[in-house]
Design goal:
It is a single chain. This protein is α+β, with helices and mostly antiparallel strands and 113 residues long. The protein has one domain: Alpha-Beta Plaits (2-Layer Sandwich), CATH 3.30.70. 46% of the residues lie in helices and 30% in strands. Strands 2-3-1-4 form a four-stranded antiparallel sheet. Helix 1 packs across helix 2 and helix 1 runs antiparallel to helix 3. The longest helix is centred in the first third of the chain and has 19 residues. The protein is globular, with a radius of gyration of 14 Å.
Length: 113
């Protein structure tokens, strides 16, 4: 199993606006396409104006298919056009689950469905 971590640095003071737009519009679209939201966070200590979200995938092929479907969705493209001006930079990491954590992650994800 893989977890994709996406980190967005927002314009100063714009994280609350981004989160509000995501909650009211983006989340419903995104969760139609991506299978497992692992978490959605905003920085409290350390780099400021940072929004981090993580998504679980069975494998990288699943990730490619899910993200391609999302990118093809006109509703997603319209949402991204609205929030793009709030984002300064983006970083992405894809992490492979440690063997001893795999079953725990699967149970955590199953509990959210």
């Amino acid at each position: 199993m893989y977890v994709e971590e996406r980190m967005y640095t927002m314009q100063v003071g714009k994280a609350p606006e981004y989160l509000k737009m995501y909650e009211s519009e983006g989340m419903a679209i995104q969760t139609r396409h991506l299978p497992n939201m692992v978490g959605y966070y905003v920085s409290e200590v350390g780099p400021q104006n940072l929004v981090v979200h993580m998504w679980g995938y069975d494998d990288l092929n699943q990730r490619d298919k899910c993200r391609a479907a999302m990118q093809a969705d006109p509703a997603w493209r319209a949402y991204v056009a609205k929030v793009r001006t709030l984002i300064v930079s983006q970083d992405t990491r894809i992490m492979k689950c440690a063997p001893f954590f795999l079953e725990r992650l699967k149970k955590m994800l199953a509990a959210t469905k």
